Amino acid sequence: MGTGQLQKAVRWYPPSYDIRVEDVPVPLIQDPDDAIVKVKLAALCGADLHIYRGHGGVEKIHTCGHEFIGEVVALGSAYGTHAKDRPLLYSTLKVGDKVVSPFTINCGECQACRFGFTARCAHSTLFGSPALEGGQAQYIRVPKAGATLFNLSDPKTWPNGTPTSLADSSLLMLADILPTGVFAALQCLSHPKVQPVLTGKPWPLSLHPNSATTDSAPLTQEDVRLTVAIIGLGPVGICTAVSLLDMLAARRHPHRIVGVDLLESRREKMRAVYAAIDQEGRGLGEFIACSPEEAKTTLGKWTQGVGCDAVIEVVGHNSALTLAYELVKAFGVITSVGVHGEPQLPFTGRQMYNKNVSFDFGRCPARAMFPMAFEILGKFKRQDVFGQVGERASLVDRITDFGQASESYRAFDKGEVGKIIFDPWK
Amino acid sequence: MGTGQLQKAVRWYPPSYDIRVEDVPVPLIQDPDDAIVKVKLAALCGADLHIYRGHGGVEKIHTCGHEFIGEVVALGSAYGTHAKDRPLLYSTLKVGDKVVSPFTINCGECQACRFGFTARCAHSTLFGSPALEGGQAQYIRVPKAGATLFNLSDPKTWPNGTPTSLADSSLLMLADILPTGVFAALQCLSHPKVQPVLTGKPWPLSLHPNSATTDSAPLTQEDVRLTVAIIGLGPVGICTAVSLLDMLAARRHPHRIVGVDLLESRREKMRAVYAAIDQEGRGLGEFIACSPEEAKTTLGKWTQGVGCDAVIEVVGHNSALTLAYELVKAFGVITSVGVHGEPQLPFTGRQMYNKNVSFDFGRCPARAMFPMAFEILGKFKRQDVFGQVGERASLVDRITDFGQASESYRAFDKGEVGKIIFDPWK
């Protein structure tokens, strides 16, 4: 791989809807912390559509994609036994190792990284953006790779109980959509305002042991049945549902969940996934996949007009935030992992005050969520959701070649297909 | 107290800035759940200023005030031993009992009340609003009093260790400002995104025991020093600071706090309060009261430009929310207890996403916070903050008569005085 070698890459052209496959130079090490990865598989993600549609204000032609899995083919001078004081992979990563990357880079050394908030690393950059070439190519340069990458060739770093035989198409889900789903579900369930439902103890006793008040009526069984709406049933929405259901099954906590999407094809996929994974949950929970209007009616009935305990928004559009506000109860929680753009938030301060709304916004710290995501990936291996490509309940609809790139973007944008993976060597 | 008896009351007249003291009928029992309370003391609160200034879109002449303490003089037919299945006070409250009320009523029986979210009770109504006559009067009608009121004549219901000899002017702080401060501080410290700072464990290990990741550098002592900004140093802001400092002293957690206000008189009061209460905290913390510009400079230095872990907003104005966003770090928390109005939130979705902001908005469930507020009230009794009226570090500047009502509203609105209490019988 010397200077001047060419590779195939999926490139975005301004202003919008223009995807071309081109020969571009193979990337080279630019910084001592860089690694060059030969891409085995790269996926198309809903977040890619923001730039595709021309919503991002982007003008620069660049290689697309932020989900990839591959093999290390070159490392910068920072790597080796002299790097013992740095994040693990600087001293252990080798050429030939199989790796998966989160969708943004992170240095592992700044304060945000030390806190585990890797998505907002001081060096955070999104792959497949004007600032950093993406993974829908045969080779990719990974800056800060010693903290960014996860070494799949080192099974002793895998969480206990994860089968080491996971398919590459399954492991690719670690790049973005599964950690983002885990992040959304974890944020929702760990919010203090949800604790009274989960613990059966009223606020603030749910948080502070010496704050008992005996002046209200006790909580009923119906009160502590958690009611959640998930808005958006694309691949991330489905991963959110899977993660949430897994966490609730682990707690054996009774629940009712509404998955909301405008497209029947996505609702149908969600139902198939639910049928595949709902084993422990039988009797503990209900799950409905429906349209926004049906969601309002169903939640109105279930909660007698009070609204649901939490809403998870996975769309990235003000209409989804407006629906979330409408569905949530007072003192409810809205967890938003959708990628939002320039429009002002569609809320007044009075609306926020009057409903005591809590919001958690933003990008998943995917690298920090890998252990939890791995655990789920292992658990559902035999259940086809993250497994066989093209099965009814599989998140991945097809693996295709770069020749299909432009058509794949078009069909994915229209909601005609679910998740698509590219094999750059096909 | 038969029909037609008159009493003195402080009344608001539209459109704005028009406060009159008038003779109005003494209220009567209207509903079986009502109590009539003879008011001993009633306070003027920052939230009263929204209507005072004509910001609330209010047109109805009404009696002002939502902070009062007094004595029960009449009870509806719901009270008595036949009410054993209802909230405690329906069966135990007696004529002659001394009571304090939170600033809104709550039934204690709806789902919101069972959860402890009493501020959003299905029957929630604010005293001193067009919907319910206020406490700046000689008598007040309290709907749902068996769940709303706290019985001060029943020391066995007081939290352990609270001295029963608290002055009425201290106990009056339970009506709104102290519970609101406790609520703000509790929301801030219990937010999941603050847990890495408090526990020293990175996200998501701070929440989920099996999610260890060893790929980032360990947290430093500097990282886990909690940095908080409190925007607004009126009485609620000061109560917030007192509550936060108390919780941090109990944890022996190192911290740096900036209190922000435009008015030097409020900053000066805050400094006096801090000097009075900072005993356990010496060496564990720093506290600065300053202007917004100084806050930006100080926090920039303290956090090397990263921003603070959490911001508590106690103003109720978009300028305060904008400042909060500017001061908070990525993955930081903004707790807003300010009363917000019609303007749209001054944020785009992109801003929220790009900084992974979490927001907690809304009204304090004061009745549910009473036990925690009581605990703090007892703790600081000898330290003048909630004690002697008019002392340098006292939250209460003066106790005056209704003759001073109009002038008191004017001076309070201008920030010329701190908290004012009315004695309706003076």
From TrEMBL, chains A, B:
This is Alcohol dehydrogenase. Keywords: Metal-binding, Zinc. The keyword Flavoprotein does not apply. GO terms for molecular function: metal ion binding. Gene3D superfamilies: Medium-chain alcohol dehydrogenases, catalytic domain, NAD(P)-binding Rossmann-like Domain. Residues 245-359 form the Alcohol dehydrogenase-like C-terminal domain. PANTHER family: DEHYDROGENASE, ZINC-CONTAINING, PUTATIVE (AFU_ORTHOLOGUE AFUA_2G02810)-RELATED, ZINC-TYPE ALCOHOL DEHYDROGENASE-LIKE. Pfam families: ADH_N, ADH_zinc_N. Coiled coil: none annotated. Its cofactor is Zn(2+). Residues 32-146 form the Alcohol dehydrogenase-like N-terminal domain. The keyword Zinc applies. InterPro entries: ADH-like_C, ADH-like_N, GroES-like_sf, NAD(P)-bd_dom_sf.
